[in-house]
Amino acid sequence: MEILGRPVRKELSQVQVLVRSGDYFFVDFAHDLSTTGVCIYSILLLEINSDLALRIHLGQNKNEKITAKGRIKWANKDKAGYKYGIEFVNITSEHKKKIEEYIV
After folding, report:
1. Is residue 15 scored above 60 in pLDDT?
2. By the 8 A CB rule, do 33 and 46 touch?
3. Which residues pair with residue 7 across a beta bridge?
4. Is the pLDDT of residue 2 over 60?
5. From residue 69, how far is each of 3, 4, 12, 79, 102 by CA, in Å?
6. In the CATH hierarchy, which fold is given to the domain comprising 14-90?
7. Torsion of CA 33, 29, 61, 6, to 10 degrees
8. 3-state SS assignment for residue 104
9. What is the structure's pLDDT at 3?
10. Nearest to residue 95, comparing CAs of 33, 46, 5?
11. Is the dihedral angle over the CA atoms 30, 33, 35, 36 positive or is it negative?
């Protein structure tokens, strides 16, 4: 399945993302995932260009962990909170490959 020309897996709702931003820590499920970044929702208001520590669990296998540093590139507010586009700024090539294998 493709969205905007990019492959997306139907099981994307099973991709859990743990986020740490300063003193804040929260968990969400990915709403979009690629080798360059991830999209999540939060009720927290975070600043554009904020740096984040991320741990991503791919699918139902919670042992498949990916760690990365990310930076908030954009945010949209809606009734439920905020939707954030996070660009990976520090991720290993091994972890990028695992993401690529998961989404293709």
Report:
1. yes
2. no
3. 2
4. no
5. 25, 25, 20, 28, 19
6. Thrombin, subunit H (2.40.10)
7. -20
8. coil
9. 46
10. 33
11. negative
CB distance 73 to 85 below 8 Å: yes
pTM, 2 dp: 0.84
- Tokens encoding 102: 């998961």
Domain boundaries, the chain: 14-90
Q: Which of 100, 70, 68, 66 is nearest to 85 (CA)?
A: 70
Secondary structure (H, E, C), 23-65: CEEEEEECCEECCCEEEEEECCCCCCCCEEEEEEECCCCCCCE
Q: Which amino acid is at 24?
A: Y
Give the tens place of pLDDT for each residue, 39-92.
Answer: 999 999 999 999 999 999 987 666 678 999 999 999 999 888 999 999 999 999
> Given the structure tokens 């492959």, which residue do they identify?
7
